Amino acid sequence: xxxxxxxxxxxxxxxxxxxxxxxxxxxxxxxxxxxxxxxxxxxxxxxxxxxxxxxxxxxxxxxxxxxxxxxxxxxxxxxxxxxxxxxxxxxxxxxxxxxxxxxxxxxxxxxxxxxxxxxxxxxxxxxxxxxxxxxxxxxxxxxxxxxxxxxxxxxxxxxxxxxxxxxxxxxxxxxxxxxxxxxxxxxxxxxxxxxxxxxxxxxxxxxxxxxxxxxx
Length: 216
Ligand SMILES: Nc1ncnc2c1ncn2[C@@H]1O[C@H](COP(=O)(O)OP(=O)(O)OP(=O)(O)O)[C@@H](O)[C@H]1O
Ligand SMILES: O=P(O)(O)OC[C@H]1O[C@H](OP(=O)(O)OP(=O)(O)O)[C@H](O)[C@@H]1O
Prior knowledge:
By secondary structure, the chain is of the alpha/beta class. Helices cover 32% and strands 31% of the residues. The protein contains nine helices and eleven strands. The strands form two sheets. The chain has a six-stranded mixed β-sheet, with helices on both faces. β7, α5 and β8 form a beta-alpha-beta unit. α1 (14-24) crosses α9. The longest helix is centred in the C-terminal third of the chain and has 13 residues, at 203-215. The protein is elongated and about 65 Å long. The relative contact order is 0.21. Residues 10, 12-14, 56-58, 75, 77-78, 96-98, 148, 165, 167, 186, 188 line the site of adenosine-5'-triphosphate. The site of adenosine-5'-triphosphate has 18 residues, from α2 and α3. Keywords: Amino-acid biosynthesis, ATP-binding, Cytoplasm, Glycosyltransferase, Histidine biosynthesis, Nucleotide-binding, Transferase. It comes from Sphingomonas japonica. Pfam families: HisG.
């Protein structure tokens, strides 16, 4: 038998929505996958030719782009930030709905006019997307890279504005911030390494199974 296909899944909040989708695609991981006390990172499934690895959301794209995993599940926010040419994203999985937005303190927003910005300082996990977004309209974005808790940056003076994911809006609200611009709507995608798509026979039927699982 050829080597199993390795499917990279993020260990954060997408996982809860991804598991039922995997089940609809006929993929059920071994029990240790759902066991928080397990330190294993690679797991067998009920399909002998499919293994799962559980990695951080941004690392899903890196594993698949380099061919260390053949397929993965990742947010379109991560894809936009990396822009890897080796990745093919054939299926919108319709999970992990949120948006990538610019936010600032409510009192600042009351007096602010985004059309007047020429230079902005932004704390974000998404510096490339942020710079691209602002360049598009001639605004220079100076980004401070953070890996989480962006919402603390304005009040502590790190940067007056942030670019972060918003879903219910609760995190912004509880930190005194308001959304002033939406950069992109986000959902999770099935991604495939382009070389694996051509050379690994199991990949194309598996992509079809995910398409059917989304439609089901
Ligand atoms: N509030 C949200 N609502 C819906 N989807 C979200 C939300 N926040 C993040 N996501 C999606 O889930 C993905 C993973 O986000 P999550 O917050 O679980 O990872 P993280 O904790 O930031 O990552 P890491 O594992 O690097 O710490 C994001 O890339 C995005 O596509
Ligand atoms: O609009 P809301 O529904 O409040 O969701 C937004 C929050 O969700 C994400 O963080 P997450 O909770 O995944 O944790 P993180 O800070 O570890 O990224 C995001 O970074 C926001 O902080």
